[in-house]
Design a protein that fits this description.
Rossmann fold, eight-stranded antiparallel beta sheet, four-stranded parallel beta sheet, ATP-dep_AA_Ligase, 12 helices, ATP-grasp domain-containing protein, D-amino Acid Aminotransferase, Chain A, domain 1
Length: 410
């Protein structure tokens, strides 16, 4: 038999044949052009342009099944979960079904199911501007308006004042939105692997700022030691959320919870996929586990490599957000042995816009430490170094400099 993989990642982040080296079956790969050129021995490989909006991906997958049947479809990216679930149902293949994929993608439906078991913010799906008006009348400001199927805090508005509310109405709400009450407190994220509705592995971290407010702000996600007093409480809360939603079968998960001043845990959202923003890579740095690898192998029925003891260290990932301007100076490498990964996402000379999502960064840096105290000390040292070594000339100064140069030449 065979398996089909739907992929939109670069090969460096998705080495499927390496992950599946002991799989005694053919592997078919349908991928976006981002995967890059390869001579890897996929039994069948096809590249699609405009991947996320290209409906031919599903049609060609159906045609492929007729000529070369496969027993599984695997997809790692959130925007592929619904199309993959449709194909599974059509072909009667195992894995996450459409009901589960929708529950994990549609945040309004998610909360309607989860609110029967855990605390959720007051929320409402927005089918008209009157719904937003009524919600604000009932719950007051601030509120958060966001897409029901959004990712990375894109197209999300925090409305704090009547003036901001008027701006939203004047702009027009658009479709596919929801509103929820703004929750004060710290935000935590929990990542792991589930089989059915049982958590088999979990990691938990604390955001230095709420992702919904991260645009244009620095953020550090510190992974917590399992001995941290709140760790098991977070995992238990996520277990309840998972039990409230239709089972995705075998899947990774990424959940975000608010911890309020009243010591309550409140659900922000959960996704049936691996965390972005290099959080999963920081999990790997701390626990030695690649969640995507284990997710793919588990679906194929292959042996897993999951941690069986507490990690010897903690880790965290720092994200430097984009801001308008021109990159004048950027380090090629970082001189610290406790940096396990440094990924610059821009180049010297590049002109930047403002950040459009919570993971739209100048760079990401993963650091490790013996405990939270040493990790925070190293973060402080890193930030001091980057303050000296990173230079982004603000857009307004760039204009002034250009005008001065023109004047000087006249």
């Amino acid at each position: 038999m065979a398996i089909l993989i739907l992929n939109q990642r670069r090969r460096a982040f998705a080495p499927y044949l390496t992950w599946l080296e002991d799989l005694e079956e053919e592997v078919y790969l349908y991928t976006s052009a981002a995967y890059g050129e390869t001579t890897e021995p996929y039994a069948i490989m096809q590249v699609f342009n405009h991947w996320t909006t290209n409906d031919r991906v599903e049609i060609e997958a159906l045609k492929l099944y007729e000529e070369h049947p496969y027993r599984l479809i695997i997809a790692l990216d959130e925007s592929d979960l619904i199309r993959t679930a449709r194909l599974r149902e059509r072909l009667s293949l195992p894995g996450q079904r459409l009901e589960s994929a929708m529950a994990y993608r549609d945040k309004a439906w998610m909360k309607s199911l989860a609110s029967q078991y855990v605390l959720c913010p007051a929320f409402r799906r927005l089918d008209s501007p009157l719904h937003l008006y009524d919600f604000v009348q009932e719950h007051g400001l601030p509120v958060v308006v966001k897409p029901v199927d959004g990712m990375g805090s894109m197209n999300t508005d925090i409305i704090r004042t009547p003036e901001q509310l008027n701006e939203v109405w004047e702009r027009g709400l658009g479709a596919g939105l929801m509103v929820e009450a703004y929750i004060e407190g710290e935000m935590y994220e929990i990542d792991g692997l589930m089989m059915g509705q049982e958590i088999r592995f979990a990691s938990a971290g604390r955001y230095s700022c709420q992702p919904v407010e991260i645009l244009g702000k620095e953020c550090f996600v510190e992974l917590l030691s399992p001995a941290d007093p709140i760790f098991q409480r977070l995992v238990q809360e996520v277990q309840q959320v998972i039990e409230a939603l239709p089972s995705p079968g075998i899947s990774t998960f990424h959940c975000e919870l608010f911890h309020t001043r009243e010591d309550e845990l409140v659900l922000c959202e959960i996704a049936s996929r691996t965390a972005g923003g290099r959080i999963s890579e920081s999990v790997s740095a701390m626990y030695g586990v690649n969640l995507n690898r284990e997710w793919v192998r588990a679906q194929c029925g292959l042996p897993l490599t999951l941690p069986t003891s507490s990690p010897p260290r903690v880790a965290g990932v720092y994200l430097m957000p984009k801001r308008p301007g021109t990159v004048k100076k950027l380090p090629e490498a970082l001189p610290f042995d406790w940096v396990t990964e440094y990924v610059p996402r821009v180049k010297t000379g590049e002109v930047l816009d403002a950040a459009h999502s919570s993971v739209d960064a100048v760079m990401t840096v993963i650091i490790v430490g013996g405990d939270s105290v040493s990790l925070q000390a190293r973060l402080s040292q890193l930030l001091q170094y980057l303050e000296r070594e990173v230079q982004i000339l603000p857009a307004l100064k760039e204009v002034a400099w250009s005008e001065a140069s023109v004047i000087g030449r006249k």
